[in-house]
Design goal:
Layout: E1 3-9, H1 18-27, E2 35-39, H2 42-50, E3 55-61
Length: 62
């Protein structure tokens, strides 16, 4: 089975750096509480690592 990442934005980006705001947008997150499901790839893991303090991540089987 392929693994997926369930990513939920938990904090605001107001006081964050521009590159972190852009990373959240590239993941598809715009609002606090919004959740997206992304494929578990190295690129997506890197995005999540860059904004780990703003999101909550859960591995799911898809």
């Amino acid at each position: 089975m392929a693994k997926s990442l369930k990513i939920t934005q938990t904090k605001s980006v107001i006081s964050e750096k521009q590159n972190q705001r852009e990373t959240l947008r590239s993941l598809g997150l715009k609002k606090i509480g919004q959740t997206v499901v992304r494929e578990d790839t190295q690129a997506n893991r890197g995005y999540v690592r860059a904004v780990a303090h703003l999101v909550e991540v859960e591995e799911i089987d898809a």
